[in-house]
Amino acid sequence: MDVRRWIVAALLLLFTAVLYAQPVSFADLAKHPQYKDVQISPDGQYLAATAVVKGQTVLALIRLSDKKGNVVQPREEDDVTGFVWASATRVLYSVGTRVGGYDEPLLTGELFAVNADGSDAETLYGFRKTGMSTGSHIQHAAAEYGSADVIATIPDDPNHVLVAVSSWAGAGFERGLPTAFRMDVRDGNKAQIIVAPMRGAHFVADHQGRIRFAAGVDNDGNVKVYLHPIDGDGWQPLPELSRDRSWPIAFSRDDSTVYFTCKAPAGFGVCQWDPAKQSLTPVWGNPTVEPAGLLQGLADDSIIGVDFMDGRTGTALFDGQSADAQALLALMKQFPGESVRFVSGTRDGSLSVVLVRADADPGTFLLYDAKARKITPLLARRSWINPEQMAQMQPFDFTARDGMKLHGYVSYPPGHENAKQLPMVVFVHGGPFGIRDTWSYDTLVQVMATRGYAVLQVNYRGSGGYGYDYEHAGWREWGGKMQDDVTDATHWAVTQGIANPQRICIFGASYGGYAALEGAVKEPDLYKCAIGYAGVYDLPLMYHRGDIPQSSFGKDYLHRQLGDDMDVLSKHSPINQLDSLKAQVMLVVGGKDERVPSIQGLSLHQALANRHIAHGWLYKPNEQHGFYDEANNTELYTQLVQFLDANIGPGVTK
Q1: pLDDT tens profile 60-79
Q2: Given the DSSP bridges, would you call strands 339-345 and 351-357 parallel, antiparallel or unpaired?
């Protein structure tokens, strides 16, 4: 029995067949996932999972033998945001404060630990830690103002992990300069190993607990890669790897090699780095997309191939005949058309957690017994979502007006996958640089598609995942070629007969909010309505307001990727082009947004009012860069679809 049938069977116990004919409610779409991540302990005795209980994300610890468990609940205002098994009996976790935010709460920088049975809870690091400190090289855990992130566990040392600590002292809004420590998971005491060679660096360690690489992006956008020799005490620059923008990912389980992103004969690749020769050898390549990550095998920390997304989810195995590869291939046959991945495993690989998900399926975690070759359902991320009722995404490629090949997705209303002349929403992703739309479950896509609207998403130039040149092509093209790509994708959908040219709306969040309003004023006859969500509408204002210009990295980012000509930026600002506006407008703003401060939305709101232009307006004073509260999201979804219905609807629902 496959995952979809398990979910449907469970839902049938709760709902009547009549309800299945109705689209999923906005309240259900707005719910946070019931379970987000699941990991099995190294010995296979316990599961740890982030779970939502009464609106708060907690850490659930479940003993597999009898399914009994404990719930680790952080302070009332906090959510558990991540966790890792430090040993078979000890879990480390981090928390965030629920003060709004786009996707998740704001991280506090603290690190906590608890035993698998719920005992011996301890604050290991953070500003709310109590204790004493000394002047010795061994720092005893005490209140510290900074952020700690786990670099890696140490398989043969269950009492210690490697952590990167970035102090807040003197940093202001600058990126942190991390220091690597070996931390005791029992009490938080830590011994310093090495300071990173640059701000914002990422450490890579081997399985012996040794820091071996650091990599980061400098203020000019250049990749910098450094080696920390085993027998040395400093950093050694690797200029050739830096020049090629290669990036260290992880060591093989036996530490014989390290995997890098790299250039490959096919275009984009994954390479193995030989420590002795200090050279890269390609092991995977793709002409279109970069790797999305490495594929885990049955055991924790094992690597069996490359995960990539060229349209849909792609799988490339290093050795298709290995036991791990054969197990994955067998599971993929059981769940055709879905993404199947090992996401956690025991030390010996006897038990593994599998995540099965798809464009219409939020995902279900399964337990795989390698010896018995048996799978058992564990936890569904959103058990109330029936994948059979959800919209499916279809990848597409097309050629932009200047000959550049672009990629995107169309999601059709359920049951109307072959329909023509549909009302359509062009949904532009944020970022804009380095971010991309993917073949995956997307709540906002489902909100619109399940109400009868085709949803078009395009990875315009500047998007991530297609290489540095693809991203670089979008620099200084706000309102220019990036916007033209969105326009060209819209015309493509009309030419293909997918969209009714008289029933098209454009919508986006953050940069997507900018693109929605810029599209409305640059192409006034193309879009009947435009929805800006946490959007930028005055480009020069980005240089003075918000968190980006408050750091040297942010300032350099603006000058490098938006440009210095304020006249050009003003010309490409929607707030200065309202004479061209014909579309109906809706604005959505969070009052505590630090990335795109609310003055952006408030100023456009006032400018429209001054022109006596009626428009939709949804303002939530306690939300940040995108809504987090479920009730606020339910209201957003309701008003969003009402706005679409009034301007390009009603959507196709039968």
Answers
A1: 999 999 999 899 999 888 99
A2: antiparallel
Q: Predicted confidence band at 13 (pLDDT cuts at 50, 70, 90)?
A: very low
How many angstroms separate the CA atoms of 503 and 423, rounded?
Answer: 5
Residues 6+ apart with CB under 8 A from 582: 520, 524, 525
Residue 73 in contact with residue 172, Cβ under 8 Å? no
Write the secondary structure of 85-98 as one string of H (helix), E (strand) and C (coil): ECCCCEEEEEEEEC
Quote the CA–CA distance of 653 and 577 in Å, as a whole number.
36
**408 three-class SS:** strand
Instruction: Give the separation between CA 137 and CA 158, rounded to whole angstroms.
Output: 21
Structure tokens at 132: 């004493």
Q: What is the pLDDT of residue 77?
A: 83
Taking the CA atoms of 238, 242, 245 and 250 in sequence, report the sign of the dihedral they define.
positive
Alpha-carbon distance of 130 to 141, in angstroms, equals: 8
CA separation (Å) from 160 to 167, 207, 285?
A: 21, 12, 37
Helix (H) or strand (E) holding 633: helix 630-647
207 pLDDT more than 60:
yes
Check whether 360 has a pLDDT greater than 70: yes
pLDDT at residue number 144: 86
Kindly report the three-state secondary structure assignment for every residue of 56-72: EEEEEEEECCCCCEEEE
CA max distance for the chain: 72
- Average pLDDT for the chain: 91
pLDDT beyond 90 at 343: yes
* Contact yes or no for 178/166 (Cβ under 8 A): yes
User: For the whole model, what pTM was predicted?
Assistant: 0.90
What's the average model confidence in pLDDT over 18-36? 83
Number of Cβ within 10 Å of residue 12's Cβ equals 12
Cis peptide before 650 (omega within 30 of 0): yes
The C-alpha atoms of residue 305 and residue 320 are separated, in whole angstroms, by 9
Segment 567-594 mean pLDDT:
94
Per-residue pLDDT averaged across 486-501, rounded? 98
In percent, the amount of the chain with pLDDT more than 90 equals 77
Closest CA to 110 of 47, 188, 208: 188
pLDDT of residue 415: 93
Strands (E), 229-311: 236-237, 247-251, 258-264, 267-274, 279-286, 291-296, 303-310
Strand partners, 339: 357
Torsion-angle region of 215 (φ positive above 0: left; ψ -120 to 50: alpha; else: beta):
beta
The string of pLDDT tens digits covering residues 88-138 is 999 999 998 865 443 457 788 999 999 999 999 999 999 887 654 444 455
Question: What's the pLDDT at 131?
Answer: 58
Residue 462 and residue 486 in contact, taking contact as beta carbons nearer than 8 Å: no
For the chain, how big is the Rg over CA atoms in Å? 25
Cα separation values, 392 from 19, 211, 340, 416, 580, Å: 20, 43, 17, 10, 35
Tell me the C-alpha distance between 246 and 48, whole Å.
34
| Burial grade of 627 (CB within 10 A; 0-12, 13-18, 19 or more) | buried
